[in-house]
Design goal:
Blueprint (H helix, E strand, L loop, with lengths): L17 H12 L38 E4 L9 H14 L16 H8 L5 H12 L14 H24 L9 H10 L3 E5 L4 H11 L2 H5 L3 E3 L12 H10 L6 E5 L2 H9 L3 E5 L14 E3 L7 H14 L1
Helix pairs in contact: 1-2, 2-5, 4-5, 5-7
């Protein structure tokens, strides 16, 4: 039975509602699930990330083969993993999401599990669909008994995701979040050189817009040649659709695009679209297998446009 719709009240920037806070605190002492008791996230082969690649732009004259630089958002423009996790846990507490339904405490995704989850499954709704499918659809304030029809399951996921998105926006708007090192400088170099600039994210569109407006500024955001979010494509990363669509909108060939990603999921999407990819990894993705990336970096602070032109030119020449 449908009991309520998404609440409009917001919580503090770092804590759920009073009742939710107590539930989360309890959940931390008594987790509502353990890695031994529920199915593992779909596995991806992992190993230590390669050392950052140092490339000298002086080794070759500037090349015109780089026609577009495409950034992912979460993990690339900002380190957002814990912010998303906080917003999900706040949503689970707010709606009293219990999975399995007999749990005494609201669902709580701890840091280790969320790192694994978000590095295997792209997009918030797919994460929840997978988790509930593996561990049992939950009881909640939205549905007193676990939803059994596809339409009710989708309604549950949509309501939780919408509330989570608004919560995430509150955190971003608080001013405590900054772009990762080197991002703004590289974006400005690219635009100044007349090369096309894009952002492609699997996250909810309103959430990505909020991030970009607050982190890169309105002028840079409005100056993007292409912006795509999860709402714009049917399939999420690692499916390559979002990058294929970006190349079409930009009017460039995939081979002349270079993607900046932070995870194997994004790398697979870029490669599937026929694009080269560099990785700027985060603590939660540093151990992943980035063999197929043309370069890896801890951040973009020492990466210049000429480096990227040279990297892509070498990649195109060697095939």
């Amino acid at each position: 039975m449908l009991l309520t719709t998404m609440a409009s009240s917001s919580t503090s920037l770092f804590l759920p509602t009073t009742a939710g806070a107590a539930a989360v605190a309890t959940a931390r002492r008594h987790p509502s699930f353990s890695h031994r008791s529920h199915s593992r996230v779909p596995a991806t082969r992992l190993r230590r990330a390669p050392r950052p690649v140092a490339v000298s732009a002086a080794a070759s004259p500037a090349s015109s083969s780089l026609d577009a630089l495409i950034f992912d958002c979460d993990g690339v423009i900002l380190e957002s993993e814990n912010l998303h996790r906080q917003a999900y846990n706040d949503a689970f507490a707010h709606f009293g999401v219990r999975c399995p339904p007999a749990s005494a405490d609201p669902l709580y995704w701890d840091e280790a599990f969320y790192d694994e989850l978000q590095n295997r499954i792209g997009g918030g709704k797919p994460k929840m669909r997978w988790y509930f499918g593996e561990n049992g659809w939950p009881s909640s304030k939205i549905f007193e008994t676990p939803p059994s029809t596809d339409s009710d399951k989708e309604k549950l996921v949509n309501i939780i995701q919408d509330w989570k998105t608004e919560r995430y926006k509150e955190i971003i708007k608080s001013g405590i979040v900054e772009p990762r090192p080197g991002v703004l400088q590289l974006m400005d170099e690219v635009k100044g050189a007349g090369i096309k600039l894009a952002v492609c994210s699997a996250a909810t569109k309103s959430s990505v817009i909020m991030c970009l407006e607050n982190l890169i500024g309105l002028e840079r955001f409005n100056g993007l040649d292409c912006f795509l979010a999860g709402d714009d494509v049917k399939l999420k990363k690692p499916d390559p659709t979002i990058y294929i669509t970006a190349a079409e909108k930009l009017g460039v060939e995939s081979k002349n695009c270079l993607v900046v990603e932070d995870s194997v999921i994004g790398l697979l999407a870029a490669k599937g679209a026929g694009m080269s990819c560099i990785i700027t990894y985060t603590p939660s993705t540093a151990s992943q297998d980035f063999t197929d990336a043309i370069a890896t970096y801890p951040d973009l602070s020492n990466v210049r446009l000429e480096d990227l032109k040279l990297l892509l030119r070498k990649t195109l020449v060697t095939g």
